[in-house]
Amino acid sequence: MLEVPQDSKMFMIAKFDEKYSMSSVQLASRIITDKPDEKSEFFKQGVIILPNPSKIFGTNRPFLYYYTELYGLNKDDEIEYQWSISSTEGVEFKKGSAETKKTTGKSLVLADRIPIPSLKTGAYNLFLNITNKKTGKTIEGKNNFYIYRKIDFTKDKLNLPDSLEVTAKDSIELDIMKDSEVLLEYEQVLITFDKKEQDKYTGLILSGKREFLKRYWTEQEAKQPNSRENFKQNIKKINNEFSTKKTEGWRTDRGRIILKLGAPSKRDIETYNNEYSDHEIWTYFTGNYTFVFADTHGLGDFKLVHSDYPGEKSDPNWQAKIKKSNFGN
Asked: Of 8, 60, 258, 308, which is the most buried if we count CB atoms within 10 A?
């Protein structure tokens, strides 16, 4: 049991003052009781409650922390409380011992951590059963959470086809990814879409982008197993080859085109030319498309100056534009 202040008026809510009731059950990635920083935005009732908005625990979070507040109590009431964890289908997996705590005022905080390393990947419900032994009144709180353990995604453990195994793993991984990571992957994936598809999905809010990625990779894995992992490896390869001091490789014009269309069928590299700036001409035999990238400033930053691919920059006069004489050389 985590010890937190019981008699503070800070969390009292007037309408609950006389009614035996409880706040929602908050789940946290950690509750810090040792010398908490009162200036923290997560400071509450003498502790730091680090949120876990995804409500996913497991491999990297082997403890489930909970926090709730009771109202409508009297001094020296004896509160008995007990937690239990069940599947969403109602099968009970774990149950804690009943504990008691005496009140010092009209309100009380209950907080604790539950070891959950034995729970397998899946969806669960946490129940808190709380009884005022003096009055005999009982109330119950509930919150749902998820477990993700990498060990559960081995073939021996799940006995699933490769494509389904990867899809399930990726779906949960996307649930626990940071918002910034979701936004980054969403932007990378959207590059591979045509203009019409990009316009269709650019208005999604953050939660919509997360769900979009889950559906997208589910479809891709059904067509080709390991699609998402291959995509990640391709990003790394592109970054290694095309990154500049200021720009990641996948954000450059060359990286963007490879991410969208794959490697060109033919790549002509023109450097150390007295007449023209360093440039590259890429040809895709499928569709017979051409892309011209030029480093007009000599900084290693190759920009797209011409293409006949629909929707990309087109400039039939590109050769005149990359002549060194145009830049005072």
From this structure: 258
